[in-house]
Write a structure and sequence with these properties.
heterodimer, A: mainly alpha, three-stranded antiparallel beta sheet, 15 helices, 60% helix, globular, B: Arc Repressor Mutant, subunit A, Herpes Virus-1, 3 domains, 10 strands, PKC_DAG/PE (chain B)
Chain lengths: 347, 267
Amino acid sequence: MPRGQKSKLRAREKRRQAREESWDPVDAQATVSEEEEESSFSPSPDVKDDLQSSPASGTPSSPQVLGEVHSTTASAEAVSSTRFTEDASDQLEETLNALHADDIAEYWHRGPLDEKVVMLVHYLLYKYQRKEPITKVEMLRNVIQVYKRNFHEIFKRASEYLELVFGLDMKEMDPNRNTYVLINKLELSCDSQEHRGVPKTGVLMTILGVIFMKGNCATEEDVWKVLNMMGLHDGRNHFIFGDPKKLITEDLVKNDYLVYRQVPDSDPPRYEFLWGPRAYSETTKMKVLEFVAKANHTSPSAFPPYYEEALRDEKERAQAKSTARAQIAAMASARSKAMANSLSLPK
Amino acid sequence: MQGSSRRTGTMTDVHRRFLQLLMTHGVLEEWEVKRLQKHCYKVHDCNAPVEKLEDFIHNINSVLESLYIEIKKGVTEDDGRPIYALVNLATTAISKMASDFAENELDLFRKALELIIDSETGFASSTNILNVVDQLKGKKMRKKEAEQVLQKFAQNKWLIEKEGEFTLHTRAILEMEQHIRETYPDAVKICNICHGLLIQGQSCETCGIRMHLPCVAKYFQSNSEPRCPNCNDYWPHEIPEVFDPEKERGAGLSKPSRKSLRPRQPL
């Protein structure tokens, strides 16, 4: 928000706080009717007790709107004076709380539900970029909170927003565990050469992780063990990924992300997976290790042997890059010297 | 959103793809953005005329407005190149980074940020940053690890590294300017010309006012006797050239080398 507006909003917030303290039913009614037009939610029993004795009890929305004011003025002050004292998960909550619910409500003539939709969109984008699936439990705890009863509406509207604005589709990954994943709708509709990095489904990253942590070569059984935990089974069509066997042994192989080959001298034939050349060029051991670490709520250094290997890989890549850069720079300076000389420009 | 009375643009797959790719990259230079835009048209709607970039972005921003997200345009502090970043407006700083970094890594960034803001040149040496490693929150980090993390920040365009010293990438400035100004009101430096946050720049040795290098370039363009806008004393520093996108493409080099600039002047 532009600075000017923000200080205007703060002034409004102060006035609102003052208004709340000297409760005026007439005033409240005016605000409430405005809010009521936009939001369509049922009163939540979690509202603060001190507001339930309010005279303007005819409209269910009023205690909730003011309840929101009560909690956000406190958090607004906390945010402005807080420097950096929370840990990462609290950080995310603080981030979400900083959306000054009252500012938004006042400025956009929206109700608290709309703010929750915005917060949920931010949260879902955050998870999408981390390539992590989303669970209902996480959404309720981190975003929805007191509006538990309105989960479906908030979720539906957030999903619509993501589809409309970002072209991301919300799909249920595992109906038993209420897990969802965002799929890039656009990618499915055309062949993209511009997209950076590996597909965001996380399946590939998981497989690359298994391969890496099995010494850069994993048996087919190893891979299936992990895929089964994600709800992918051989011979069972998955709602999003279709035939998992085809995905990992054909599609990803064809796209050079994986190498699938028979274990030498195996009879009956058994198969193993390795990283494909495209995996090496589009991601790194360190990135894959970070992915695995995050999925296990830890950090890469918790896996010392793999962390060391990943560090070595990073070093080699950096060295290769700087050698290449030096060569290009040398060529460029030689070229520019030649140009300068040929044009006889003063140096 | 339904309740909003603001005019919103229409999003097509062209815009969505553009937004997705910009989100993936985080920050892009103007020429890259133009190329990206053309690519999106090619992929989704090759018959439509390519909309002027400014209008195209304005269109998307009008839809993003109610989400407190914006495609922001900025200018690099050292050579005035226009860049674009997808920025979260309503969140506290560092939240964008939270999707890529662990708690102790974010804390390292905060420490580096504070050292950069407090420095005279806008650069903090890696030695100074690494010295605070044992004060970090979260899991204990060794110096060797911290070096890697600093490189990661540079790769992800949150910091810029120059000869072992670090400053803020323009992306970080775009994303965090508001937060930085609110959190460090006494330590921040401001440009006398554009009144924006200043990390690197030149300063008047007499009265101490500061200016961004591209602001200096524009202000003193074709002025043979540059004088301080505040105290009128002779401006002692070398005046950089105004960034010219045409010139850069014509030279045929991968990046123009700003030999005339010495961005790390003590302020």
